[in-house]
Structures are given as structure tokens and as C-alpha cells.
Design a protein that fits this description.
The protein is of the alpha/beta class. It has 8 helices and 10 strands. The chain has a 6-stranded parallel β-sheet, with helices on one face. A two-stranded antiparallel sheet has the order 1-2. The longest helix has 15 residues.
């Protein structure tokens, strides 16, 4: 996709051509829904919810399910059911502080969302949080390998006609941070909606009100 290039974006003392955002935990605070859905699944199958939540953030549903699948389970079917439940529940979804004001700075050729959610769920959550739908939206259906693989971020950069080293990524989870860094992008961690503390190799800020 060759979109008209806008003037360079100034952030953290550097110039970038595009900004690439994760969705859940970065632009959208969906913790209430995520915890409800995974709690129900863990309870139904006698699984440890804390262990599931510790690894599920930033990853595709199917990848998390495969990690905890029990004998006799069909991972694809389980993931599909979980995604249907998530798509039907938007109670408590809000935008991360400053997210709407920040994305409103950019033209359509300057930003994208790269999420581990499916397309239907991504659109619903962005709208529920009062955020616009970007022209370039990379979802779980667009990639063969989910985060921490860099495929999603590389695809977003390609569709925006930008070099990865001219892209700034905002992420909230270890898997996504690794994906952005492996793609060759600069990465900034958003902490506001991340329920677990972890060490990060990149710059870390609370929310978009902290963007320099």
C-alpha cells in the first residue's frame, strides 16, 4: 500500500514516518473483559487463572490456548469460542489515557494497529473505547505467526510504505515488545493497563500523556 507520506513525526527526540500501536493494554484498556473471559475458561477446565493471565497478554488466543490445552480439547474450537465470548462483551472497555488525542495527530498514512485479536473483536473494542479505526489494521487473521514473531509489525510497515527503522511501536506486553524490536522498530512500553510488572529493554512510560 503506497499512501501519501506526511511530514515526519517527532517523538522522544527522533523523527519517525509511522507509529504502530498494539491494541489491548496499549490503546484500549480491556482488562475487565479479558479477565472475565479467561476466568470463565479457567474455571470450566480447572486451570490456574493466574498462570494463564501471566502469559496471555499480547498473544493470540489460539497461542495461549495451545499452551494450556488438556487432553481431548480441540485448541482451534476452544479459541473460537473464547473469541466469540470476548466479541460479545464490551463492558468496562475504555481508552488508555491520552490515546485518542495522540492518534488524532496522525494522517491515515502515519499510523496502524497491530493486534493479536481477530478483526471483528479489534473493531468492536476500538469503537467501544472511542477510538478511530485505522486504514491499516493488522489482526490475528493477517499473520501466520503471532507475537513475539515480528510478522505483524513488518506487515504494517510494508502496507504503510515505511521502513521498520523509521517506525515507532507502542506496546504493553513482553511478547509485543519483543515483536516490535525484532522487526527493527523503536519500541515504547505503555504501563497504564498492564496488570503485571516486568523488566523491559525499551523506554517505558505510563500512558500517552507522557509522550515527549
Amino acid at each position: 500500500m503506497n499512501l501519501r507520506r506526511q511530514p515526519a513525526i517527532q517523538c522522544f527526540g527522533r523523527e519517525y514516518d509511522t507509529v504502530l500501536f498494539d491494541m489491548d493494554g496499549t490503546l484500549v484498556d480491556s482488562r475487565a473483559v479479558v479477565e472475565r473471559v479467561w476466568s470463565g475458561w479457567a474455571r470450566r477446565h480447572g486451570l490456574d487463572l493466574h498462570k494463564i493471565l501471566a502469559v496471555s497478554h499480547g498473544r493470540r488466543t489460539i497461542d495461549t490456548v495451545r499452551e494450556f490445552v488438556l487432553p481431548g480439547m480441540d485448541p482451534t474450537d476452544e479459541a473460537r469460542r473464547l473469541e466469540e465470548i470476548e466479541a460479545a462483551d464490551d463492558e468496562g472497555i475504555v481508552g488508555v489515557c491520552g490515546a485518542r488525542e495522540f492518534v488524532d495527530r496522525f494522517g491515515q498514512d502515519q499510523w496502524a494497529v497491530v493486534t493479536s485479536a481477530g478483526c471483528r473483536l479489534a473493531v468492536k473494542r476500538l469503537l467501544a473505547a472511542g477510538l478511530p479505526i485505522p486504514e491499516v489494521l493488522i489482526t490475528a487473521e493477517d499473520v501466520g505467526r503471532g507475537k513475539p514473531d515480528p510478522q505483524g509489525y513488518l506487515l504494517a510497515a510494508e502496507r504503510l510504505g515505511a521502513s521498520p527503522n523509521r517506525c515507532l511501536v507502542f506496546e504493553d506486553a513482553p511478547a509485543g515488545i519483543e515483536a516490535g524490536m525484532r522487526a527493527g522498530c523503536d519500541v515504547v512500553a505503555i504501563r497504564a493497563a498492564q496488570p503485571f510488572s516486568f523488566e523491559t529493554p525499551c523506554r517505558s512510560i505510563l500512558d500517552f500523556r507522557s509522550v515527549e
